[in-house]
TrEMBL record:
<comment type="similarity">
    <text>Belongs to the acetyltransferase family. RimI subfamily.</text>
</comment>
<keyword id="KW-0012">Acyltransferase</keyword>
<dbReference type="GO" id="GO:0005840">
    <property type="term" value="C:ribosome"/>
</dbReference>
<keyword id="KW-0687">Ribonucleoprotein</keyword>
<keyword id="KW-0963">Cytoplasm</keyword>
<keyword id="KW-0689">Ribosomal protein</keyword>
<dbReference type="InterPro" id="IPR000182">
    <property type="entry name" value="GNAT_dom"/>
</dbReference>
<protein>
    <submittedName>
        <fullName>[SSU ribosomal protein S18P]-alanine acetyltransferase</fullName>
    </submittedName>
</protein>
<dbReference type="Pfam" id="PF00583">
    <property type="entry name" value="Acetyltransf_1"/>
</dbReference>
<feature type="domain" description="N-acetyltransferase">
    <location>
        <begin position="4"/>
        <end position="157"/>
    </location>
</feature>
<dbReference type="GO" id="GO:0008080">
    <property type="term" value="F:N-acetyltransferase activity"/>
</dbReference>
<dbReference type="InterPro" id="IPR006464">
    <property type="entry name" value="AcTrfase_RimI/Ard1"/>
</dbReference>
<dbReference type="InterPro" id="IPR050680">
    <property type="entry name" value="YpeA/RimI_acetyltransf"/>
</dbReference>
<dbReference type="InterPro" id="IPR016181">
    <property type="entry name" value="Acyl_CoA_acyltransferase"/>
</dbReference>
<keyword id="KW-0808">Transferase</keyword>
Length: 161
C-alpha cells in the first residue's frame, strides 16, 4: 500500500463516508447522523486514504467529539478490504493529537464487549479499561441478550511536552 494520507473531512465527503460505514459496520450510522458529525462545530471527522485525496481513495474514518473536559471517540470504521494494514491505528493517533490540541484531559470511548478487533486496537493504542456498562447495546443480530459496553480512556494530560 502506498503511504496513506490523513485529513479532516467535511460535508463534501458524505457519500464516501456513508459507503464505508454501510460496508464496514454491522449497525451503521444513518446518513443524517453522518452528516451531523461531518458538520459538527464541536467535533471533527478524520479520514484516512490512499492515492488521491478524493472520495475514491477514502479507506476509513473516525468521529471525535469535544466535550467540556474530555474528548470522545464516537465511531471508527475501516473498509473491510483494507483492514489489518494499520489504518485504524493511524486514525487513532490523529484523534489523540486533535484532542491534545483541544486541551482535553482524556480521550474516552465505549465498545461492545464482543468486538475483539476494536478492543485489540484500543489496548494496543494505549487505552485502559475503566469499567463496564451492563446491557448497554442491543443484541448484534436483533435477538438474544443485550450486550455490555466496555468503557475505556486514554489519558492526555501530560502526554505531550
Ligand atoms: C476495528 C477496526 C476499525 C480496525 O481497523 P484496522 O485498520 O483493521 O486496524 P489496524 O490495522 O490499524 O490494527 C491495529 C491493531 O489492532 C489490532 N487488531 C485490529 N483488527 C484486529 C482483529 N481483527 N483481530 C485482532 N486484533 C486486531 C491488532 O493489534 C492490530 O495490529 P496488528 O495488525 O499489527 O496486529 C476495523 O476492524 C473495523 O472497521 N471494524 C468494524 C467497525 C468497528 O467495530 N469499529 C469500532 C467500534 S467501537
Amino acid at each position: 500500500m502506498s503511504d496513506p494520507w490523513l485529513r479532516t473531512l467535511d460535508g463534501d465527503w458524505l457519500e464516501a463516508v456513508e459507503r464505508i460505514e454501510h460496508h464496514g459496520q454491522p449497525h451503521p450510522w444513518s446518513r443524517v447522523q453522518l452528516m451531523g458529525a461531518l458538520t459538527d462545530p464541536q467535533g471533527s471527522v478524520w479520514g484516512v486514504g490512499v492515492g488521491e485525496q478524493a472520495s475514491e481513495g477514502l479507506c476509513g474514518f473516525a468521529v471525535l467529539s469535544r466535550q467540556p473536559f474530555d474528548a470522545e471517540l464516537q465511531a471508527i470504521t475501516v473498509a473491510p478490504q483494507v483492514r489489518r494494514q494499520g489504518l485504524a491505528g493511524r486514525l487513532v493517533t490523529a484523534l489523540i493529537d486533535q484532542a491534545v490540541g483541544w486541551g482535553s484531559e482524556r480521550l474516552l470511548l465505549e465498545v461492545r464487549a464482543s468486538n475483539q478487533a476494536a478492543l485489540a486496537l484500543y489496548r494496543r493504542s494505549g487505552f485502559r479499561d475503566d469499567g463496564v456498562r451492563r446491557g448497554y447495546y442491543p443484541p448484534l443480530n436483533g435477538c438474544g441478550a443485550r450486550e455490555d459496553a466496555l468503557l475505556m480512556s486514554f489519558p492526555l494530560v501530560g502526554s505531550r511536552g
